[in-house]
Amino acid sequence: MAVKPGSLFAQGAVNTFESKRPPLAERHFTSAAVEEMIKKVKDGLATSNPEMGWLFENCFPNTLDTTVDHSTVNGRPDTYVITGDIDAMWLRDSSAQVWPYLSLMKNDKPLQQLIAGVINRQTKCILLDPYANAFYKDGKKESKWKKTDITDMKPGIHERKWEIDSLCYPIRLAYHYWKETGDTAPFDANWKQAIKLTVQTFKEQQRKDGLGPYTFQRETAWATDGVPISGYGYPVKPVGLIASIFRPSDDATVFSFLIPSNYFAVVSLKQAAEMVSKISKDAALANECSSLSIEVSNALKKYAEVVHPTIGKVLAFEVNGYGSHLIMDDANIPSLLSLPYLGAMDVKDPLYQNTRRLLLSLENPFFFKGKAGEGIGGPHCGLDMIWPMSIVMRAKTSQDVNEIKACLKMLQTTHGGTGFMHESFHKNDAGNFTRKWFAWANTIFGELIMNLYLTKPHLLKI
């Protein structure tokens, strides 16, 4: 099989494009629609870019192949989704891991039921504790963090880091599932109660009536796992924004008003309002969702925009309402870079474009550029470690054909010979990476390739 000059395979790392998927009998779930898409993309790239077709084959089904546990509980679909090498279900990751399959459900009823099961499972998780970010399948299991974390840890919870996006992602998944299928079966009284808890939690974390019920401290030497001021974080002024003690990276915020996550909340609350109005017929709850969305949106207009000394007007990453702000971005989504992807901002918005210019430059302290590639990382993996997820998001928010091609080339040459995406890789050495099995990175890469193949296939012939 011909290999592109300069590719990892041309350098002798491997000499064939053998599938890295588990044997068929060992796969957790097989979707006819997903398999058909894999064949279509592989066949389409067989001569122009077989390596990219091979990467798609390995990565796109990775969530289904290795991380889902699908069953029926009390007559309803139930799907537990682990992140990969950690046996726990994050509300964020589980939503993002199955997200790219939504468009394929219409041709695959079992796949639709699997995703309905994710929604049902997430509802159970939120009802258990809306402040937790990760859960176990076994509701009686106790976390290892119970020994070190000073917070209200219940059985069934893996980790209790409060992150706004943990409650936004399930709404995003539910909303688009509903739009794709018209199915309202997952959206029962329990689901509506989870929406009520979401609104309640958001309001508590606006900090208008005190600091709220949530605190978190951990006995650790890892600074980004610690929360100052008795576990409440540094003070914020109650201006209408929602406090998030942790980022989507599971790292603690510096200033608790995390701007990308507040933008995500605005979108999610609008979607929740539409759903509870049309499905649950609850006008009061719908109005509560809409009013809160408007309030947060207005606060963002007033407090999120700052002036960078050389770039000009940009969005801050975090603020505190008192005038302090943090300029940076983190690879994890929601990020500032990802706002158009989440439907939170028009990609052509001058403010977004100016912010994007800052984020993809050395003015962002977590933008790294080296021999292997360039992209955004974050404190979670440390300096000089680039997250493939940020390269995917750069491509998905780009209007420049050459930029998209450059991102695809980086993704194709930085998998370290494994055939999979990773959490991060060193800017000068793609073989130095973190997390060999990280399903979210694999699936979002697959999402990018599928979407480009269906809309701009010529870009994949790099």
UniProtKB/TrEMBL annotation:
SUPFAM superfamilies: Six-hairpin glycosidases. GO terms for molecular function: hydrolase activity. Keywords: Hydrolase. The keyword Cell division does not apply. InterPro entries: 6-hairpin_glycosidase_sf, 6hp_glycosidase-like_sf, GH125. The keyword DNA repair does not apply. Pfam families: Glyco_hydro_125. This is Glycoside hydrolase family 125 protein. It comes from Terrimonas rubra.
